[in-house]
C-alpha cells in the first residue's frame, strides 16, 4: 500500500463517514452486484439499526470491538472497512460469545476491489482478532451466493461449518457460517 492509502483503526470522529460507507457498500454489494430486490423500507430499517452513526459510535467505545478502515489520503475518502469483536450474533452451538472473535463486516468499495486492499485489510483485522481472542476461534458469516467472498475467506483459513437465515428488515437471506481456528486454539 503506497502513501496514498492507509489502514487505520477508526475512532469516534469517523462514525458519520463509516455510516455512509457502510450503506453505500451494502447497496453496491447486495442490491447491485447480487441483484437482491430488497424493499427500500427493509434497507432503511437495517441501516437505522445496524449502520447508523449511533450504532458505529457504540462500536468505538466498546473495549472488545474495533472498526478498521482504508483511507484514501489524497482524496480524503474511505474505500473499505471491517468490523471485529466478540462473536455474539451468529447462531451456532460451538460459539462462546465472549471468548470467540467475529469478523462482523468486511467491505471494499467496488471501484477499489481487486487491487489488494482486501488482502491488506484482512491481515490487519485477523492479527487484531488473534491478539484479542487468542484461545478460541474466529467466526464470520457470508452471503450464500457470495462465491468470491467464500473463496477469499477460505484462502485465509476459514471453513464452512454451518448455515443460517438472517434478516434485512423483513427480508430473509441465507448465509454460511465460517470458522477459523486461532494459532493457539
Automatic annotation (TrEMBL):
InterPro entries: Acyl_CoA_acyltransferase, GNAT_dom, MshD_Acetyltransferase. It holds the Pfam family Acetyltransf_1. Coiled coil: none annotated. Gene3D superfamilies: 3.40.630.30. Residues 5-183 form the N-acetyltransferase domain. One of its GO terms (molecular function) is acyltransferase activity, transferring groups other than amino-acyl groups. PROSITE patterns: GNAT (PS51186). PANTHER family: L-AMINO ACID N-ACETYLTRANSFERASE. This is N-acetyltransferase domain-containing protein.
Amino acid at each position: 500500500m503506497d502513501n496514498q492509502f492507509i489502514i487505520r483503526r477508526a475512532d469516534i470522529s469517523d462514525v458519520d463517514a463509516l455510516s455512509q460507507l457502510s450503506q453505500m457498500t451494502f447497496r453496491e454489494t447486495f442490491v447491485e452486484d447480487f441483484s437482491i430486490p430488497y424493499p427500500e423500507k427493509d434497507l432503511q430499517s437495517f441501516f437505522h439499526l445496524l449502520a447508523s452513526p449511533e450504532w458505529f459510535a457504540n462500536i468505538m467505545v466498546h473495549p472488545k470491538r474495533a472498526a478498521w478502515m482504508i483511507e484514501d489520503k489524497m482524496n480524503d475518502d474511505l474505500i473499505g472497512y471491517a468490523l471485529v469483536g466478540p462473536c455474539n450474533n451468529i447462531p451456532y452451538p460451538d460459539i462462546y460469545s465472549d471468548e470467540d472473535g467475529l469478523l462482523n463486516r468486511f467491505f471494499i468499495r467496488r471501484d477499489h476491489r481487486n487491487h489488494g486492499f482486501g488482502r491488506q485489510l484482512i491481515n490487519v483485522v485477523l492479527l487484531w482478532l488473534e491478539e484479542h481472542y487468542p484461545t478460541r476461534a474466529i467466526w464470520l458469516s457470508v452471503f450464500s451466493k457470495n462465491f468470491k467472498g467464500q473463496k477469499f475467506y477460505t484462502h485465509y483459513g476459514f471453513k464452512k461449518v454451518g448455515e443460517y437465515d438472517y434478516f434485512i428488515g423483513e427480508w430473509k437471506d441465507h448465509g454460511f457460517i465460517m470458522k477459523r481456528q486461532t494459532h493457539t486454539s
